[in-house]
Amino acid sequence: MSRRFALLSVTALGLLAGCAQKPRTVAAVAPPVIMVPVPAPVMPKGASPTIVIPVALADGTYPTPNRNLTTAAKVWHLRAALNVAALACRGPQEVVIVAGYNALLSAQKPVLAKAEATYASEYKSGGGDWQDRYDDSMTRLYNFFSQSPARDDFCTAANTVLAQSAGVSAEALPAFAAQNLPVLERPFTDFYRAVDAWRGRAVPRPVQPVMASRQYASNTPVQTITQARLQPVSQPVPPAQPRLKLDASVFQ
């Protein structure tokens, strides 16, 4: 009996040992997948889903009325841009911009008059209805600088350029215009670039040439020339907003 009990005990211990050697399998539970929403691109200030902007060129720039200009054209386009700023900019900078623009007209009248005459003669040399072509180009130019989505940055740039123009001599104005016309244009091309990025068409910035800091000679007295097209902007500016409309042909 004792021997039989002993055999049963050994058998039972063997079974228990066998059971103890088998680890319990626990099913691994995969962590839940967390869906992180991708934020939608922010529409640039002043843009709309249907806004039309020019198509970027292969070099990363945008077509504007300020491309491929002669020296006289750069001076006259600078004056036109600052004229728009004096008419359209509002807020704390308004008085300073108007005063700066009027000071520029007063100090640089002969240079500006010569630039306008030279620029017009360049159109006239093309023959045909040159006056109509010239007037159309001026309309496109004013409409370009009047685009409201970029106005805040444009007015800031105009304020800076006008402040710097106070110490520019008549001889240095053409070089000053060539250097600062792109400064006045950049707020608009930056806006185009932002719209393209918002639409998923990132346009790389063109490589800008390194320009050395330019010191301009102090202004010297210049002869006053009366010219109807160079009338100062009266101060205060009337409260009514100027009717500056966008001409789609500026993008052509």
UniProtKB/TrEMBL annotation:
Region of interest (Disordered), residue spans: 232-252
Which superkingdom? Bacteria
Task: List the signal peptide residues.
Answer: 1-22
Under which name does UniProt file this protein? Uncharacterized protein
Q: Does the keyword Signal apply?
A: yes
Keyword line: Signal
